[in-house]
Design goal:
The protein has 286 residues and is mainly beta. It has one helix and 17 strands.
């Protein structure tokens, strides 16, 4: 079974909300390692930059540049990869259940004109199960699948508090080689939030209402539609270039009448490098 290990430091994938560093270490093992298997673990560092809307529907764009360490572990059950840290259960050759978490960086309301005077958007943690179904394998090293994550969202901002649930069904196509040593991952799907999560992004409580920003109570429903594309290429056995692009469409969202929902589309673009400084001699299957 094709297993593409990645590390994401990003807005939680089921939310796709405020700006963090939406960069990915894509297909972290090089194409040359396919036949020999992938290292059981890898450690390295990556540096990348991304520009993105501050939150879904925001008129402001924010840019972040970070250099951070990362770690990948490809155990039979325990995994540290693109979904965070968690466990997986193989329910058949084409069915997999993961449990893991992801995290995002905060965004200050001082940088967002329409949120002036409102609380900052804090660091978000996302935790829950993801059902992954493989629908087809068009050729060796490629996969078409359906991913169904349902995750709780928790905010760290002067304490830890729940901010609801998110659901992001998506179709995914992954391939290890599209030519020239480039790997590619493409996905498209929907982003849905419950009433509490949508209130977090779009709600305006009475005590924060102004003449230009009337009070608003958000409802559960669609946040937006999403299409994303990621690609990477090994420059050396230890150095890898990666790129990321995402298009969000909010025009069918459930909370378009919110005074905080100002844009019908949003684009994110990121670029970076990863460097592996250590890896296991033990190899595991994909």
């Amino acid at each position: 079974m094709l297993r593409t290990s990645m590390v994401f430091l990003t807005t939680p994938p089921a939310i796709g909300a405020k700006l963090a560093l939406t960069t990915a270490l894509l297909f972290s093992a090089s194409a040359q390692a396919q036949d020999a298997g992938l290292p059981l673990w890898e450690a390295g560092v990556f540096a990348g930059s991304l520009t993105s809307p501050a939150y879904p529907g925001s008129a402001e764009r924010l840019t972040r540049t970070l250099a951070l360490p990362y770690f990948i572990y490809r155990g039979d059950i325990l995994r540290v990869d693109r979904g965070g840290v968690g466990a997986r259960m193989m329910m058949g050759p084409d069915v997999e259940l993961d449990v893991g978490f992801a995290a995002s960086l905060p965004a200050s309301s001082a940088d967002i004109a329409v949120r002036q005077g409102m609380p900052d958007l804090g660091t978000l943690l996302e935790f829950g199960p993801v059902l992954k179904l493989t629908l087809a394998r068009p050729q060796p090293g490629s996969r078409i699948g359906l991913e169904l994550p349902v995750r709780g969202v928790f905010e760290i901002n002067g304490g830890l508090r729940s901010q609801g649930f998110a659901f992001q069904p998506s179709l995914v196509w992954e391939t290890r080689d599209i030519g020239g040593g480039w790997s590619l991952s493409a996905s498209g799907g929907l982003v849905w939030g419950d009433a509490q999560l949508n209130q977090y992004f779009y709600g305006v409580p009475n005590n924060y209402a102004t003449a230009q920003r009337p009070s608003f109570e958000a409802q559960a429903g669609l946040i937006g539609m999403r299409a994303s594309l990621s690609s990477s290429k090994s420059l050396t056995p230890d150095l890898r270039l990666f790129a990321y692009a995402r298009q969000d469409q909010y025009s069918l969202g459930a909370n378009l009448s919110s005074p905080l929902a100002l844009q019908s589309t949003g684009q994110s673009v990121g670029l970076g490098l990863s460097w592996v400084f250590g890896r296991s001699e033990t190899r595991v299957g994909n």
